[in-house]
Amino acid sequence: MNRQIIVITGASSGIGKALALTYAGKNTELILGALNKDELNNTARECEQKGSTTRTIEFDLCDADSTQAFTDTIMNNYTTVDRLVHVSGISQRALAEDTSLEVDRRIMEINYFGAITLTKALLPLLKVGNGGKIGVTSSISGKFGFPLRSAYAASKFALVGFFESLRLEHFRDNITVTLLFPGRINTPISLSALNGQGKSQGLMDPGQATGMPVKTCAAKMKKAIEKNKKDAYIGGKEILMVYFKKYLPALFYRIAKKTNPR
């Protein structure tokens, strides 16, 4: 009777996988979505070892039919969803002037339109439970722009605007929205980050490699979601840049100009 139905995107690796394992347990059914089927199934097996029931759904946020099939599978098999956590996303490593519009649109499609498409489709199931929680992975780049991140930052800013509005529209339905702002986390996201021509850069950024362990990040994310936090900043000393930008903008810009964007 107390089983929770939890939907997590991007669950094949990185933060999404770590978050699935953090939520895994005897009273959870995890619906795990991602593009890489083999890695997704590996996540599911590890979650099942911790007592969870799992369902894996391979889907591509750039493909409208694939995204529709993802939501249809959930709508056809479940009457309620307790948690919806958006982790799927793609980053960027290119100057704005060197980035094609196709890449700008692709990043926005995955990071922004993908998340709101799934949310709109699953909102009726979140409302049924009279206490659904939505976790949204933005980024500290969703609080300030940074070199080589123009499209990425734009998509993360857009998420904040949409989900802050959604939070206010549905508080009477007891739906809570937690915006998550990770900084440098040790995940493979920089490996798949797109250059200006839409190719994966294939390199691990030094800042990413020395970032917060992904398990620590996932634990903090889950805690923030379950405590109904509106915003959660997760990372190391780079999180200070959020406060510098707000309260000491001159210092922020001085540091940002000197910081290695990789």
Using only C-alpha atoms, the radius of gyration works out to 18 Å
Pairing-aware structural class of the strands and helices?
alpha/beta
Output mean pLDDT. Answer: 95
Q: What's the arrangement of strands in the largest beta sheet?
A: 3-2-1-4-5-6-7
The H-level CATH homologous superfamily, spelled out, is NAD(P)-binding Rossmann-like Domain
Q: What is the percentage of strand-forming residues? A: 5-15%
N-to-C terminal Cα separation, in Å?
47 Å
User: Can you tell me the overall shape?
Assistant: globular
Describe the structure.
This protein is an alpha/beta fold. It has one domain: NAD(P)-binding Rossmann-like Domain (Rossmann fold, 3-Layer(aba) Sandwich), CATH 3.40.50.720. The protein has helices at residues 14-23, 37-49, 64-77, 101-128, 150-169, 206-209, 214-226, 240-247, 249-258, and strands at 4-9, 28-34, 53-58, 83-86, 133-137, 176-182, 231-234. A 7-stranded parallel β-sheet has the order 3-2-1-4-5-6-7, with helices on both faces. Helix 4 links the parallel strand 4 (83-86) and strand 5. Helix 3 (64-77) packs parallel to helix 4 and helix 8 packs across helix 9. It is globular, with a radius of gyration of 18 Å. The protein starts with a strand and ends with a helix. The mean pLDDT is 95.
